[in-house]
């Protein structure tokens, strides 16, 4: 890997403290960072190099306790600090002079935007004006975190600002969900195993559910969340990416552009939701006070900084159809929520019932459907639920779970940011979003956002610690369809009576 300089804007903020610096240090421990790599912090605080290194040591102690002294010494040798203001164009001219005047700084540079999304356009503009994005003597890459815009129009406007200073190949839109091992394992599971491919279509799959639930509230982030809401924060980005991975066709090759081409085809095939159909395809809610993990917690309207009349959704669910040859008629249910009963991310795929009911003339009760379950966090797993006969003389059946989880108990768990930071340094864009992916995802949810923005008199509520608002069952097409809340067998193993 080539030597490089990683410039972090917002290096003293929460993202750097909780994710970026620990991930970079873990890569140092594993010997994965390139030789001569420099980590340059850009921040307003009037610190010198030693103060910045002391701050980083504090960050790492929060995460790792007492880091190995030798590794910490090696890591600290990479750290530099530059005092600057994001709003001051002269600071970026000073940064240009600083990097040009120090031969120890590698000319390959990545700029990580650990800042508010509203600042992306202006900071990239300042970098361009200062000549810091020119690739005459080495590559230049820019990493931005979601959200990528506020709606379709703002995403298009933001992209037009990026286009003034960057090629698409220089822009790395990071979605940390796509760096998780289980998400990447979806690609391996689907395309390295022939066994399920004949079943992976509308003939055998009844519906697909993709869930991200959190027990946490907004955690003093009202200034961000009031302008975002659950639909923008999670569903439009993370969950639609998971849907694309589940539904995509096998790519021609496993390179970045081939992968992203297939994801875009899925998003283009999503049936548009007309404004008069929003209520049949979308549901929103807001958490009220309740009990989570044995503790009483306030409702959303009682959180610090939240408008008492806010109708910002903390729960959002969508029913989508992908109108292509493989998936036409199969509903995809996406939901996300805060202050729910359990913290979990999972993909649950329900198969159809057998076309011929061999047991219809017996006393055997209705058999339970087969499920394929992919746990993403905190339980990384792959499971298949099937029906088997209970040993004995009578015809009893029960469900069992075939566990194909790929991680054994003693295998190391890496943070998504470790994988993604390495990909930035190597120039691998496979797990980063291309602009047309972003735009087509906004096209899917934009009608819902417009209708919800006009309906400001009422929002459904749900008690904190539950699985969301009442009435979401109306999104399902049949009475035997239901939200899958657990990766377990949901109670009794026995699915039928003796006859």
Going by helix content, strand content and strand pairing, the class is alpha/beta
Task: Note the total helix count.
Answer: 13
Ends distance: 67 Å
Main β-sheet, spatial strand arrangement: 16-15-14-13-7-12-11-8-18
Mean pLDDT: 87
* Percentage of residues in DSSP E strands: 15-25%
Query: What helical percentage do the residues reach?
Result: 25-40%
Computed Rg: 25 Å
Largest sheet: 9 strands, mixed
**Could you tell me the number of beta strands?**
18
Name the overall outline: globular
Unreliable sequence segments: 491-499
Describe this protein's structure.
The chain has 499 residues and is of the alpha/beta class. Helices cover 31% and strands 21% of the residues. It has 13 helices and 18 strands. The chain has helices at residues 14-29, 49-64, 69-76, 89-100, 120-129, 152-163, 181-191, 222-225, 229-247, 256-269, 278-281, 416-426, 435-454, and strands spanning 5-9, 38-43, 79-83, 109-113, 140-145, 171-174, 205-213, 282-288, 290-292, 295-297, 315-321, 331-337, 344-351, 371-377, 381-389, 397-403, 432-433, 460-463. The strands form three sheets. The chain has a nine-stranded mixed β-sheet with strand order 16-15-14-13-7-12-11-8-18. It has a seven-stranded mixed β-sheet with strand order 3-2-1-4-5-6-17, with helices on both faces. Helix 1 (14-29) packs across helix 12 (416-426) and helix 9 packs across helix 13 (435-454). The relative contact order is 0.14. The model is unreliable at 491-499 (pLDDT under 50).
